[in-house]
Amino acid sequence: MKNYTPRSEGRKFIIPSFFFIIALCILAFINEVRFDSLLSFGRCALSNVPMNNNNGSLETPLLSSSSDDEIRILIGILTLPDQYPRRHFLRMIYGTQVVPDGVKVDVKFVFCNLTKEDQKVLVALEIMRFDDIIILNCNENMNKGKTHTYFSSLPELFNETDAPNPPYHYVMKADDDTYIRLESLVASLRPLPREDLYYGYVIPCPSMDPFVHYMSGMGYLVSWDIAVWLKDSEIPKKHLEGPEDKVFGDWIREGRRGKNRFNAKWSMYNFPEPPTRCTHELWPDTIAVHLLKNQEKWIRTLNYFNVTSNLKPSKLYHIP
Questions:
Q1: CA 205, CA 276: separation in Å to the nearest integer?
Q2: pLDDT surpassing 90 at residue 37
Q3: pLDDT, tens digit, for every residue of 156-204?
Q4: 317: buried, middle or exposed (CB in 10 Å: 19+, 13-18, 0-12)?
Q5: Cβ(247)–Cβ(267) under 8 Å?
Q6: What is the pTM of this model?
Q7: How far is CA 313 from the centre of its chain?
């Protein structure tokens, strides 16, 4: 595996011990899990150990949170107020997924201020029924600061005194054409630090080095402390416009944040057709599939992962 050395003298890698690797092998055998699948989730922890596949890198000890099974994750899906059918569809996608005990995953739909009379009625009804919408105080946009408004608003939105501290260990921004497998996402986060973490699919597509550029807008995640930093820092406010994922990476680099990075490639990827350097075939070791732009691509993806396998038999319906 190609290893990457961070550029700052202050950054250091922790080389996992031989016994840690052996323990992972035993765990994979006991659970009848392919070892390469296990490595795909632990790729950062094993970044200095020779192996056959290319992986990303992370640079601080990963056992700091491994004894704590409780994980709280917020996924903010950035969308538009008028995308009612898409939101209802995604509620089915995420509402039927199961996460392990002790794990909390909240999926919220995020957009800017309402501008139409019908939105004020229909969105209000959605909130009354589902309570899963965040309306930011901004004018609707994609590349003019909406992402910053989302992340920087979170510390104020979730500052209840009786809430856990932090309210979420990790916060994620995702596109509404991305399918995220929640259990796989949780499994990939378990060994990772809960501070100064920047996680996602590194751009450019051929790269496996998470310290070179930035994480793709399909879905990237940071630890809660970075959201707090985004609220307080002047760095993002000076540079809000441009491709939102690239601009986010610029903030992280200029602010010297994200010393801990996890490249989730190729567990995150673009839908395989049309083939590009960013695509990958659908495969079991998947965290997220991006560019599901039409129903056909969604159905192919959902069929591959057999998402209806838990459908209970009933006399009320017959689905062959």
A1: 9
A2: no
A3: 999 988 889 999 999 999 999 999 999 999 999 999 999 999 999 999 9
A4: exposed
A5: no
A6: 0.80
A7: 33
Q: What gap in Å lies between CA 4 and CA 151, rounded to an integer?
A: 29
User: The tokens of 94 are what?
Assistant: 């995420």
Complete DSSP assignment for 257-291: ---EEEE-TTTEEE-SSS--TTB----SS-SEEE-
* Beta carbons within 8 Å of 39's beta carbon, 6+ residues apart: 24, 46, 51, 53, 55
- Spatial separation of the C-alpha atoms in residues 107 and 185, rounded to whole Å: 13
Residue with tokens 């035993």: 26
Mean pLDDT over 67-91 rounds to 93
Number of Cβ atoms within 10 Å of the Cβ of 223: 25
Vertex 141 angle, CA 137 and 143, to 5°: 120
Mean pLDDT for all residues in the chain = 85
Contact 107, 77 (CB under 8 A): yes
Residues sharing a CB contact under 8 Å with residue 188, sequence separation 6 or more, in sequence order = 41, 262, 264, 267, 287
**Bridge partners, residue 92, by sequence:** none
